[in-house]
């Protein structure tokens, strides 16, 4: 057994915070992803251009650079806007909110392309059949497009989720007490970096292994009844 010298509870607390961060960021990325996908497929040119610019810029800049830009740049912007609305005190952004927003915003771009590809994989004739039966756009989306889109999106969604989970390690640089930061503090105090970073590596491996099992189950569930060539 690894001797954590009393830092086990803090590592566990950091792990739980990391899981919360992952799930919250995933929720934001999914909302941005479906919105961006619909915008990129829209015939309204301004929406299409905005979504294209979003995915191009985000996917072209390293995640670490984006996190620093959004966290520090966003904090500067908010404190510049504060006096304009009569708020003179310094505004310190919560690291958790900053981490969730940043990672969600980054992976929203990747989810956009995943969902866009999944939507395009659904036969257009089925959508037209729904319209011909008098179904509204919302019913066509919720009853025809969405269920089939999910099946096509699962592989790409799963890859994005696994990368998102590992990207959360970057939030330690903005002061969030996730498990990486807790391990760094413990390693500095005990001078045993290998032990604590090994624990973090094992934690991430466990989380990704559980995620893969769930994703495989979802893939089988949504692939039921499909006839393979």
Report what the structure shows:
The protein has 229 residues and is mainly alpha-helical. It has helices at residues 8-40, 45-60, 63-81, 95-121, 124-132, 137-167, 179-190, 193-222. Helices cover 77% and strands 0% of the residues. It has a domain at 18-177: MetI-like fold. It is flat and about 70 Å long. The protein contains 8 helices and no strands. Helix 1 packs antiparallel against helix 7, helix 5 packs antiparallel against helix 6 (137-167) and helix 6 (137-167) packs antiparallel against helix 8 (193-222). The model has no long low-confidence stretch (mean pLDDT 89).
Q: List the helices and strands in order.
A: HHHHHHHH
Q: What name is given to the CATH topology of the domain at 18-177?
A: MetI-like fold
Taken as a percent bin, the fraction of beta residues is under 5%
Number of helices: 8
Q: Quickly name the level 1 CATH class of the domain at 18-177.
A: Mainly Alpha
How large, in whole angstroms, is the Cα Rg? 21 Å
Query: Helicity, in percent?
Result: over 70%
The overall strand count is: 0
Shape: flat
Give a quick account of the main beta sheet: strands, pairing sense, barrel closure.
none
Kindly report how far apart the N and C termini lie: 49 Å
Structural class label:
mainly alpha
Average pLDDT: 89
Task: List its salient traits.
229 residues, flat, MetI-like fold, single chain, mainly alpha
């Amino acid at each position: 057994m690894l001797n954590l010298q009393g830092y086990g509870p803090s590592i566990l607390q950091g792990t739980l915070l990391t899981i919360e961060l992952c799930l919250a960021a995933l929720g934001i990325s999914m909302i941005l992803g479906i919105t961006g996908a619909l915008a990129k497929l829209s015939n309204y040119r301004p929406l299409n251009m905005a979504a294209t610019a979003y995915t191009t810029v985000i996917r072209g800049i390293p995640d670490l650079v984006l996190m620093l830009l959004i966290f520090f740049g966003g904090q500067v912007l908010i404190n510049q806007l504060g006096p304009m609305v009569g708020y003179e005190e310094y505004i310190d952004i919560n690291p958790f909110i900053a981490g969730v927003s940043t990672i969600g915003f980054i992976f929203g771009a990747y989810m956009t392309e995943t969902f866009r590809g999944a939507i395009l994989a659904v036969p257009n004739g089925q959508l037209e059949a729904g319209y011909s039966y008098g179904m509204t756009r919302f019913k066509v989306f919720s009853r025809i497009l969405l269920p089939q889109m999910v099946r096509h999106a699962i592989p790409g969604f799963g890859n994005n989720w696994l990368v998102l989970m590992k990207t959360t390690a970057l939030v330690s640089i903005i002061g969030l007490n996730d498990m990486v930061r807790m391990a760094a503090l413990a390693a500095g105090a005990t001078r045993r970096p290998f032990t604590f970073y090994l624990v973090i590596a094992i934690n991430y491996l466990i989380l990704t292994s559980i995620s893969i099992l769930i994703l495989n189950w979802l893939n089988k569930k949504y692939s039921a009844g499909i006839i393979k060539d």
